[in-house]
Design goal:
Elements: H1 10-21, H2 25-38, E1 43-49, E2 55-60, H3 67-72, H4 100-107, E3 109-115, E4 122-128, E5 131-138, E6 143-149, H5 156-161, H6 165-182, E7 187-192, E8 195-200, H7 205-213, E9 221-227, E10 231-238, E11 250-254, E12 257-259, H8 262-271, E13 284-290, E14 295-296, E15 307-308, H9 311-328, H10 331-334, H11 350-359, H12 390-398, H13 406-420, H14 423-437, E16 440-443, E17 447-452, E18 455-460, H15 461-477, E19 486-496, H16 499-506, H17 509-513, E20 518-522, E21 525-532, H18 539-547, E22 553-554, E23 557-558, H19 559-571, H20 581-592, E24 607-611, H21 612-618
Parallel strand pairs: 1-7, 11-13
Antiparallel strand pairs: 1-2, 2-6, 3-4, 3-6, 4-5, 7-8, 9-10, 10-13, 11-12, 14-15, 16-17, 17-18, 18-24, 19-21, 20-21, 22-23
The structure holds adenosine-5'-diphosphate and magnesium ion (MG).
Length: 620
């Protein structure tokens, strides 16, 4: 039997380690920034090109390395930060494994320039695929400059796995913000391609938080501070009124290290109980200080998970201190948060509500002929294709008695109204016709009730409208129809966003325009200049809906489509809104013109059917 076990060559071992430590450009940014922090730098400049694919350059004015250390720092398990396992229990530095530089050097081209204070000049080294190439003296200030080029040049699988620049840059910004928030005394800058995204001068924690998120955050912060002899907590939580539907503004640091901790997150959410509508998340930037001996930071190489000895203790400190903070700032009593957002009935301008179904009318459209082509004059907003499914058949057979077609009558009424402008009169005429043709009424300002030959249908108005809007938006996305009509805003709305969110939204600007959403950049965030015609919502919530979907692809569904679903959900008519008969008729007709009327874009039930035999049974 031949021997089969052998030692892996160092560079192979390093590449394997790199798979764990460096998943994407952002991980390298994090490691390099943390090294600079550990080196005692007071200024750290980060520059990335093409979201870090082409170049990641981190410059610091920290301690620097002498030549021998510079040569050693790329070796596996080379670290100056611990000498024995016992040191793990007193660790205060970010790094300690000595894996980051070895990993990065095994999968990228690295140029290191460094000068220690005890040296007259610096030294430059180059690493390529784990091999050292140059070693020359350079003139430079004390500190370290590391340029990482062509990340994953020798790991095509990793490279192909990377997402779009927008997504990768979002991750880079996330890591940058995490390090910058935890070290308010250090001057940080971040530049992407040639644009400066952040320039954060040394400041108080509050000013740093504002520097990272934007000046509007000043009024949103509620300070929290509390300590016992075991643990201290300090930082800020957001006022509930500014909570968002997206996660992403929750930062927990333990001994200045960004961590994720489910239990602490839940504790913080608990402190907001009764103050936030379901599904909203408050901002928090909280710093815990704990004796390192009570922590186990060693459970995962990227170290965002952490274990405490004192979970309970921390909980019992955190909960009252946040509640007290919120109470002190009179946040809790002065606002009414009990109301569910979905129950908000936004008062709309009168013409908006009434005119809409009329504008949408396609005079050639016959909902009972799903195959008919979308009209060219009607803006294509009416659904005109799609597969029949059982629901439609059910509904259609009910309302196609003897060639009588109720919807034609409805449209005959709607058509002149769009020209004459005498909307009110025309609609009430329409209502009469409709009332004759088929029963339609609204229950609890939430369900539309109508009948089929074989029973009763209940249609959830909000979900139905979501389905309709979603299919419209997807068609616009696919370019099957003209871009959605835009309602130009008389006063463009400025939506305050932090630099990361701003970048993220602006990168999607072009395809968002297909939805009728016109966005441009603004100093404080973005400016919404036009909204989709049918948006029953504020510009702010449209932007929030976009931020909801950050991943390029989830379960085979593109981000564009998922954003369409989110937009449909915010744009759709609310539960609690009373609908006119004409509006109900329009909604129902359009719903049954959809390819999947029975489910909303999130797969929830839109229609409930009560068969007459079920009804009969109840009357026994
Ligand atoms: P770790 O941070 O876990 O020690 P790294 O691979 O990140 O491992 O770095 C290896 C060593 O290189 C560090 O321990 C430190 O001594 C040195 N080093 C890395 N980056 C810098 C820097 N920016 N300034 C000074 N020394 C550095
Ligand atoms: Mg390190």
């Amino acid at each position: 039997m031949p021997e089969v076990i052998r030692q892996l060559p160092d560079n192979v071992a390093n590449q394997i380690a790199a798979g764990e430590v460096i998943q994407r450009p952002a991980s390298a940014v994090k490691e390099l920034m943390e090294n600079a922090v550990d080196a005692g730098a007071t200024r750290i400049d980060v520059r990335v090109v093409d979201a870090g694919r082409t170049l990641i350059h981190v410059l610091d004015n920290g301690a620097g390395m002498v030549e021998a250390d510079a040569k050693r720092c790329f070796d596996r398990h080379a670290t100056s930060k611990i000498t024995s396992a016992d040191d793990l229990f007193t660790i205060v530095s970010k790094g300690f494994r000595g894996e980051a530089l070895a990993s990065i050097a095994s999968i990228a081209h690295v140029e290191l320039k460094t000068r220690h204070a005890s040296d007259e000049c610096g030294v430059q080294l180059n690493m390529e695929g784990g091999e050292r190439t140059g070693n020359v003296p350079v003139a430079m200030e004390v500190g370290t400059q590391i340029a990482v080029r062509h990340l994953f040049f020798n790991v095509p699988a990793r490279r192909n796995f990377l997402k779009s620049d927008a997504v990768e840059m979002r991750h880079v910004i996330d890591e940058f913000q995490r390090v910058a928030l935890a070290h308010e005394g250090i001057h940080f800058t971040l530049t992407h391609n040639d644009g400066e995204l952040f320039n954060l001068r040394p400041a108080t924690v509050r000013k740093r938080v504002i520097g990272v998120f934007g000046s509007k955050y000043d009024e949103r912060l509620v300070p929290v501070e509390e300590s016992t002899d075991v643990v201290g907590v300090k930082g800020f939580v957001g006022k509930p009124a500014f909570a968002r539907r997206t996660r992403g503004e929750q930062f927990l640091f333990v001994n200045q290290r960004f961590v994720k901790h489910g239990l602490i997150h839940r504790t913080i959410m608990q402190a907001y109980e009764g103050l936030l509508p379901h599904g909203q998340y408050p901002l928090y930037v909280l710093f815990l200080t704990i004796d390192p001996a009570r922590l186990d930071v060693n459970i995962h190489p990227t170290k965002t998970e952490i274990k405490f000895d004192e979970d309970q203790h921390i909980q019992s400190l955190l909960l009252p201190s946040i509640r007290r903070g919120l109470g002190k700032h009179a946040v809790a009593p002065s606002l009414d948060f009990d109301q569910e957002t979905s129950l908000n009935i936004a008062p709309l301008p009168k013409d908006h509500v009434v005119a809409e179904p009329v504008v949408q009318v396609n005079t050639d459209y016959n909902p009972f002929k799903p195959q008919s082509a979308p009209s060219s004059s009607g803006g294509g907003l009416r659904p005109g294709r799609g597969q029949m499914d059982a629901w439609k058949t059910l509904y259609e057979t009910a309302w196609r008695p003897d060639g009588e077609n109720p919807s034609l009558a409805q449209e005959e009424v709607a058509r002149p109204s769009s020209a004459s402008g005498e909307v009110g009169a025309q609609l009430s005429a329409g209502d009469e016709v409709m009332a004759e043709q088929r029963p339609l009424f609204q229950l609890q300002n939430r369900y539309i009730v109508t009948a089929t030959k074989s029973g009763l249908l209940l249609i959830d108005q909000h979900r139905a409208h979501q389905r309709i809007l979603y299919e419209d938006l997807v068609r616009q996305l696919e370019g099957d129809v003209n871009p959605s009509a835009t309602q130009q805003l008389l006063f463009p709305a400025v939506i305050d966003l932090n630099a990361a969110d701003q970048l993220f939204v602006l990168q999607s600007k072009d395809w968002l325009a297909k939805f009728g959403l016109r966005i441009d950049s603004h100093d404080d965030g973005v400016e919404v200049q036009g909204m989709p015609m049918e948006a029953d919502t504020s510009p702010e919530s449209l932007i929030q809906a976009i931020l909801e979907e950050r991943e390029e692809e989830v379960a085979g569904v593109s981000r564009e489509e998922r954003v369409a679903a989110q937009l449909a959900s915010t744009m759709a008519v609310r539960v609690g809104k009373s609908l006119k008969p004409q509006e109900m008729a329009d909604l129902v007709d359009r719903l049954f013109g959809c390819s999947t009327p029975a489910l909303d874009p999130f797969g929830r039930t839109v229609i409930v059917n009560f068969e007459s035999n079920v009804l009969e049974q109840r009357f026994r």
